[in-house]
Amino acid sequence: MRLFARVLPVVTWAVWAVTLWVPVLDSSLNSLHTEESMRIVVTSLGDVSSELSDLDPKFVVIWSCLLACVISAWLVDRLRIWAWPTVCLGIAILATLINMVANPPTLMWDSQDSSGRWVGGMEVASPAWGAALWAVGGIALIAAGICGFIGERQRSPERQRSPERFRQDTHSRFIVRQQRTPAENAARLLPLMSLVSWIVMIWVPIMDNQATDEEGVTLTSLGFNTTELVDMSPGILFAWTAVILSSAVGLTMEPPAWWSAVVVAFSVGLYLMLEKILAHPPTVRWRGETSSGESISANIVGFPAAGVNFWALGSITLIAAGISGLIAQRQRRRLFR
């Protein structure tokens, strides 16, 4: 059961990787679709057209949580706590699919035929083969969580012990938790501060410049935002995965000896990303007209905003968490000696 609990999230991840190319919703399967109209295609990255890949933030959050679930399943020794968020994630994936099927994306279009007459209609996305794969992935996550519960119950040695021995072991575990050093508590709780900082940066811009009333450039923790585009780059996806994984592992398990070094590496990577963003700020090409009708254009450059402080705070707290973990391991070795 514990093996199934670890393998099934990998199956879900593979299914979601397949739905990058296999549509979940496709308007060409709807009877309203015509050759003259545009086609609506929805994959596991959101709405995709022939010219623009628009990454919906909720899909990116699901991708990040799914990746954290897959990795933590092989790091966590006790799956009881891990199983709860896994089941919740599976339910959220199925609920998202049901919501998309119940409220499919639509598109009103108009054009001209060969005779110059105006024609038009409406495109409605219908479930495709990817919807079935999506459902399989959600069910696999729920099954993984249930297998984790069952595996931990089968593994638990308390069922074979006497009541007196069970009370002694429970009391011993309680004392051990009370005797955790400040370094151990810091290593477990500081990554949560980093996660909070990244959640705050969804609304507090990292780079921002509203130089004109028509168009500006804004960078948040969900990526580069303009009035027409929400684009989450692979770097932002890595950052979310690192922060969520660091927080989840610290709370759900006793991390292995090498995990603190990984957290420090994550924090250094986040700091280097911030340095790169500050050195190469995002820009948007703006075009307009003067009162006399002359065309003008300019580059709108994003400048550091309040979110830079939150990014730096998140990186520093992760560094402090990793260093605290290394100190706690050193203290533990001295205690055993």
Automatic annotation (TrEMBL):
Keywords recorded for this protein, A-Z: Membrane, Transmembrane, Transmembrane helix
Lineage top rank: taxon: Bacteria
Sequence intervals crossing the membrane: 7-24, 59-76, 83-102, 131-151, 186-206, 232-250, 257-274, 310-328
Record's protein name: ABC transporter permease
Lineage: Bacteria, Bacillati, Actinomycetota, Actinomycetes, Micrococcales
